[in-house]
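Would you mind giving me a polypeptide sequence along with per-residue structure tokens?
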Amino acid sequence: MIKFLRKIVELKLNFAAKILLWRKKPEVIAITGSAGKTTTKEIVRHLLSSDFEVLASGEGYNTELGAPLMLFSLSVPSSTFSVISWAKIILKAYKTAFFAREYPEKVVVEMGADTPGDIERLTKLVRPEKAIVLTVLPVHTENFVDLAGVSEEKGKLAKGVKKGGTVFLNIDDENVRKMKTEPGVRKVYFGKGEGADIQVKGIEVDLTGLKLTIKEGSEKVTLSARLYGEHMIYPLLAGVALARSEHISFKKIKESLRTLAPFKGRMNVLEGKNNSIIIDDSYNANPVSVIRALEFLSTQKG
């Protein structure tokens, strides 16, 4: 009964979401990867907000049920098994779908993949104009045969971008670098590797944050942000690449990054008691991100 109710709710909300997207036509930006999705989403939202009205998904709203709720700025009810609560949410969604006058210009959606087909279904629902693929790592692999299966699933986002759109790919991740797109979709690479369109030329990491020099064409610029650990360069580079595709100047990007706040549970440096320093990386972790966090810790004094 619970599965049946969930399926009915998903179908109703997905149909309402399609009506809303057809009516208001926001630019949809989708993000996937085995690590760094939420940080990237927050950086993208922060950078785009200087020029656009932006709606971004909340934490955990990256599923077939969560994504349409996010599009309507709705939340899962406190009583998740209440038919009445869900009926009220569905009514609110359809009211917005048919009658909303104002709607954000940009929508940033996280896409998680717990089982094969998750990303393909989400991509068909929101039809992104732009997409970011960060990493393919051995996480959430319970329902996939191997890492190649995870890579294939993440690659469905790159293949699902609309014609005339853009896919931003991490050139340093071999599985991501090899991802294919449909004809008429532009690829933009970011990372350390040669051939990256947004390429890192120098990195400094300490407890004041992340400082990096990046190169785009003939232009070089140094950016600083309150992000901690070298692995944070990828969410930052992806956000910068996306912002540049929206014609946001490096000057404005630099100014925006000054007000970028650390994210809860994700390499967040806090002041503790007795002049101690706490590095809070307590959110969902995978082996690679844990190693990167420990590497950052090992370089600190004390």
The first strand starts at residue 27 and ends at 32. The first helix runs from residue 2 to 24. The radius of gyration is 20 Å. The chain has a mean pLDDT of 88.
